[in-house]
From TrEMBL:
Annotated ranges, domain Mannitol dehydrogenase C-terminal: 269-457
Family (UniProt): Belongs to the mannitol dehydrogenase family.
Domain Mannitol dehydrogenase N-terminal: 20-259
GO molecular function: mannitol-1-phosphate 5-dehydrogenase activity
Tagged with keyword Oxidoreductase: yes
Catalysis: reaction(s): D-mannitol 1-phosphate + NAD(+) = beta-D-fructose 6-phosphate + NADH + H(+)
InterPro entries assigned to the protein according to its UniProt record, in alphabetical order: 6-PGluconate_DH-like_C_sf (IPR008927), 6PGD_dom2 (IPR013328), Mannitol_DH (IPR000669), Mannitol_DH/Oxidoreductase (IPR050988), Mannitol_DH_C (IPR013118), Mannitol_DH_CS (IPR023027), Mannitol_DH_N (IPR013131), NAD(P)-bd_dom_sf (IPR036291)
Upper classification of the organism: Bacteria, Bacillati, Actinomycetota, Actinomycetes, Propionibacteriales
Key word Repressor present: no
Name listed for the protein in its UniProt record: Mannitol-1-phosphate 5-dehydrogenase
Amino acid sequence: MNRTSVRKHLLAGQAPMSTGIVHLGLGNFHRAHQAVYTAQAGGGWGILGVASRSAEVADAMNAQDGLYSVLELSPEGSSISVPGVHTGAIVAAGNPAAVVDAITAEDTRIVSMTVTEHGYCMDPGTHRLALDHPGIVADLSGATPRTVIGQIARALERRAETHGAPITVLNCDNMQSNGAQTRELILEFLQGSKAESWIAENVAFPNSMVDRIVPATTDTYRAAAYELLGVHDRSPVPAEPFTMWVMEDRFTAGRPAWERAGAIFSDEVEAYELLKLRLLNGTHSLIAYLGALDGHATIPEARATGFIEAAARAVLEDEYLPTVTLPRDFDVKAYIASLFERWSNDALGHRTQQVGSDGSVKLPQRVPEPALELLKQGVMPEHLALTVAAWLCCVVPLSGFDPGPHARAMVDPARERLGALAAQSRSTGELVRSAIGQVFSIELAESNDFARRVTDYVAVITRDGVRAAAREAARSRTSRPHASPAA
Ligand code: CS2
């Protein structure tokens, strides 16, 4: 695969001129989202892709002139395109110094990230830098930094000490106030450094909301890409047709004309973020956990199952929607309809296992705040409790309970820690309370009503199955029992 062999599918009219953007996290999401917008924006902006650990994608791209294809799949048909905006790809784990050098380079005007929620070494309860994280401890000791926060922070320090050229740090992960949050983490890392005042003047951290459903690549997608492309692509990216990007227009060193590709520049990004994190991502998690426990491999299969669709509607409409403020002139009915349509995309086959993975770092962005808000109003968020219970049943099943192959395949950085907690706990209630306290927040763990509800659902799932638990949540939805308002 090279520019000539895929000429008619190329989105970027010209080969990238130089590296203006260093992107950390060369996963499928970046390759089907920001890279596509950048290619369509034109202007010759090039992206250096930095993979975190695995060399698979970087090797494939480097062997293909920096190219790969995006395979758009929907029940209406499929199409293929080749963004063609990468100037190269490197692997951070093998060469951390090269990452810091690339971000420091004077030509680099944006450093962007999609390293997933757990790439930020953040304490989920306090939203502060986890100072006891071994990676942060090592980076703070002065070694070549290996964490994302350490690498960006040290590169900013070097920019401040050398050429002083401004730069924008653009977080594209599913985190609340992702730009502001990144700024806090970096400043915490650099506490006491001379670079602090330079950063205040020269570095922007715009908030952004990103959205596109992008599954992992498999051989099936490779074969489909070959059909459409006519040449082999070692690393195509499957994606749904829908795509959305909303961000603040605060870039201290220029940016591509992403609006040409449909990106929205708005001063209401936080409203879009919360809307997406809760209505889309939060509901997605519930579909994934109920789906996996009910034996479904994919989101569309799960969503087509009556009790799961009902639970998804309940959590979305009764529990997430009342906790968000809609952006101006936003058609929420159409948005909700489009979510259910997107979750029905069986040509895409997004796996429950993929959405269910990393729950211990994803759910803290989705569940605790809306749960606490409803609890404070005296409303028991039944389906948020069910979400937490279903997740626990997938990743730390009680002894004798088999959550099934899709749940067993979920990866979660807290699996081991939760297993240890389970071994120490004298009861399911104790396990649930400590899990909520450690993974979500102390405040939520202190709501006895919520912890008790989660414990009840864990018990019902374990004893009678996930359908019985969803039935119970649905009954509670109808009768809307009230919890005693949390203090
Ligand atoms: C999903 C997201 O895996 C997950 O948790 O909810 O990756 C989701 O597909 C994207 O955020 C869609 O933009």
